[in-house]
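Repro:
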Amino acid sequence: MTDKIYHVPTLLKESVNALNINENGIYVDATFGGGGHSREILSRLKNGKLIAFDRDNDARRNAGDDNRIIFIKNNFRFMHNFLRYYGINKVDGILADLGVSFHHFDESERGFSFRFPEAPLDMRMGRDAALNAATVLNTYSRNQLRQMFFNYGEIKQAERLAGIIVAARELRPFEIIADLIECISAIAPKSDENKFFAKAFQAIRIEVNKEMISLKHFLEQTVNVLNKKGRLSIISYHSLEDRMVKNFFKTGNIEGVQIKDFYGNELSPFVLINKKAIVPDEQEMQNNSRSRSAKLRIAEKK
């Protein structure tokens, strides 16, 4: 496998060390991407097995022909069903790097980055998905757009942003990235335009790929999929993801509601391995600036 072009894995050693790998165990890489984390897991397996998920066909070429790996081209939200299909009831560890691959940001035709104004408004992680960014911008109601920008981009001017998009599309539909940038530049803070654009693009990308819904379904399945003492190792990149992961690890539900038994003892299916998130060191951040927002959380099934 190679990840030299597709993606540079973040917190590689830390996230894989967290799995406490048994050389004959069964593991899941829920976000295969360039295969960097998978390659590290495989280097520690003897007769074990790795099941790797990625919804993007472009990732398949990174899988190689190692007979210890099963590559599944699909969303990790369907992890439990696919494991059952392959006759796997339980696994010993699950790793997920929730970041978007470099490949997606750096390939202009994928439409993930505002660095490429002539690129199509796409943003689909899997090219066979029906919904893309242009469809969201051209068909969502003003209220849907407002909620999207507020919830997924945490943009304070979400109401105003939704309004100017609805007004702009009445003149001509959104087709390329330049159309969106030209439209929203009117309310972007002049001193921090790029940050504003990044928040707007994040919100649209999350909606297009249903990222928070997928993460919710994925996390909820881990309780039944993991063996006792099995480990969850998850790297998140923005507050929405990290909050959901943190809540789930602590309480067993994404809302973070602490459930107690009759005697007042807190109930959770997990033990926290690190109460404080692990972040990249200075060297890694210098080598890979995109790792700066990464947070690794680790939990063990009781």
